[in-house]
């Protein structure tokens, strides 16, 4: 089969790496891709949020199957355009992608499905939002309704902080994403990510992971897109995962189908777990980045068969063959991230590193200049390793990190600490 993957981050590098291992893959194009992806697949520069551009690429290259990596093309309706044109695609419709694109929509689905989540109010003006905050008290969570690149959530420790966040959002600091605001009960507990594939009807769990959102060691400093991850997440025991499936994911997927927007693709449930009980923090309609990297490392070539089955509506009867091991990824980011950072610094030492089924450096933001790999983004490399234990995976990943020569980058030293504590 000829396959097209949309996206160009570490997530898409790991998807491409898994797909390339599957003998059913004859040709792989990744758009736009990056310097790491270019070493294993053809990269093409197109506007991946334009259905026309993507269809044009599909037709010119006889593509049989499109895998959508990030949320933006899904929210823009690219999967709908492809399906309308008769192209097989992995990824939800625009209507189903509202599970990530609108927090208020997700809360409404949870209500209808009876799925446990934080109590909330949904507001279109600041005065009513502030009344609600004053009535509830702090801590409380203020969220821009729409897509805000992971930055639209304020955990307010005081009522005054919540009121300032409300003014900020309605004042336009998140653009259209903040035109509506959801205010939520603060949930205490341990966070973990639960990934399932859906084909509209059936749901297949494919793994668990834990991200590290804060920029600094010990979970300090501002939030980022994620500074490292590991899989599996011990807090998501089989019993907790079963509850998450039965109480949250399956009822919500059934509710989506009942509303005429069946969900097809990967559904990533961000969970808060306390005393063995999971509650939903949020849904994402794509793989997590960098959680995908550790999942792909453990799934390998079968990831392609599973995504293909989801797209064709044949998940029933599919099973996942798990390697009983652990994977861990360390994100290397450009100095300054998540604030402003320089592009173009040279990264050395990559050629000497092993690349096999147990050790991989996935590229998140790199390009090639005069035969050298240079940084071209905030999150730049995802140094990933597997081990029989999490401690072994961590040790291997950091051994690779330490062999990379990049003075303009930084990383967290403590990825995995929660599970190893
Ligand atoms: P979200 O974009 O909804 O994932 O929110 C970003 C992060 O904010 C989450 O990963 C949580 O760490 C935190 N968060 C969001 N909602 C809540 C909540 N209701 N209670 C506690 N923490 C939350
Ligand atoms: N790593 C968090 C996310 O992909 O949303």
| The named CATH superfamily of the largest domain | ATP-grasp fold, B domain
**Low confidence ranges:** none
Head-to-tail CA distance between termini: 45 Å
- Under CATH, the topology of the largest domain can be stated as D-amino Acid Aminotransferase, Chain A, domain 1
- Give the proportion of residues in helices: 25-40%
Q: Helix count, per DSSP?
A: 14
Number of strands: 23
Report the principal-axis shape. globular
Total count of domains: 4
What would you call the structural class?
alpha+beta
Radius of gyration computed on alpha carbons: 21 Å
What is the name of the CATH class of the largest domain? Alpha Beta
Outline:
The protein has helices at 10-20, 35-38, 51-60, 71-75, 78-84, 98-101, 103-113, 126-136, 159-170, 238-258, 291-299, 302-311, 390-403, 417-420; strands at 2-7, 27-32, 42-43, 65-68, 88-90, 120-123, 140-144, 153-156, 181-185, 190-199, 203-211, 214-216, 220-223, 228-231, 264-274, 277-284, 326-334, 346-347, 359-363, 366-369, 372-375, 379-387, 409-410. With 421 residues, it is α+β, with helices and mostly antiparallel strands.
Describe the 3D structure:
With 421 residues, the protein is of the alpha+beta class. It folds into 4 domains: 2-92, Rossmann fold (3-Layer(aba) Sandwich); 125-179, ATP-grasp fold, A domain (Dna Ligase, domain 1, 2-Layer Sandwich), CATH 3.30.1490.20; 190-312, ATP-grasp fold, B domain (D-amino Acid Aminotransferase, Chain A, domain 1); 326-420, Phosphoribosylglycinamide synthetase, C-terminal domain (Glycinamide Ribonucleotide Synthetase, Chain A, domain 4, Alpha-Beta Complex), CATH 3.90.600. The chain has 14 helices and 23 strands. Helix 1 packs parallel to helix 11. The longest helix has 21 residues, at 238-258. It binds adenosine monophosphate (AMP) and glycine.
